[in-house]
Amino acid sequence: MGVIQTIGYSLLILIIIAVVISTILYFTTDVFKPKENPVTTTPNVPVVTPTVPAATPTDTPVVAPNVPAATPTDTPVVTPNVPVTTPETTPEVPVPAPVVPELSPCYQGDVTIWWGHKASDATWACNSWKSSCANAGGCVASGDGTVVNGKSTWKCNLKSNCK
C-alpha cells in the first residue's frame, strides 16, 4: 500500500470514530442540546386574569335543529359596536311598546323568533333583522308573545317620531 492510501484510510477511520463519539455524546449528554432561554419575572406584580361571565339563554340565541332556512325578510343583519349586556349587568326593564295599527308609518313589519319569546328578544330581532328599524333609530316589538310550534311573531314599530 502506498503512503497516500494509508493516510486516506487513517482519515476515514478517524472520521468514523468522530461520528460515533458525537452520536453517543448527543444522545447521552446535554452538551449538544439547545439551552432554554431563562424567563425573567418581575417580582411583586400581580397577574390579572380577566373573567367573562358565561352566556345565558336570555342573551344568546340558541339555534334549534331543523330550523327552516332564512328568507330575505328575516335575514339577520350584524350591527357593529352594539353593546352586549347580560342579566348580571343590566336588569331587564319592560319597555312599553306603542300600540300602532299595521298601516301606520311606524309599523315596520313582523319578526318571528324561535327563542326567548319575550318583548326584549323580539325588539332585538326587529333592530337586527329589519334595516328600516336600524336606519330610523330603532324599533320596539309589540305583541302578546303567543308561541305556536316553537315560534312567536311580533310587530316592529319605530320607537321615535311616531304619532
Shape: rod-shaped
Low-pLDDT segments, ≥5 res: none
Helix percentage range:
25-40%
The strand order across the widest sheet is: 1-3-2
- Beta-strand percent range: 5-15%
Total tally of structural domains: 2
**From N to C, what is the helix and strand string?**
HEHHEE
Total number of beta strands: 3
Strand-pairing-aware structural class: alpha+beta
Task: Please provide a written account of the structure.
With 163 residues, the chain is of the alpha+beta class. It folds into 2 domains: 1-32; 71-163, no CATH class. 26% of the residues lie in helices and 11% in strands. The protein contains 3 helices and 3 strands, in the order αβααββ. It has helices at residues 3-28, 119-129, 131-135; strands at residues 107-113, 139-142, 152-158. The protein has a 3-stranded antiparallel β-sheet. It is rod-shaped, with a radius of gyration of 35 Å.
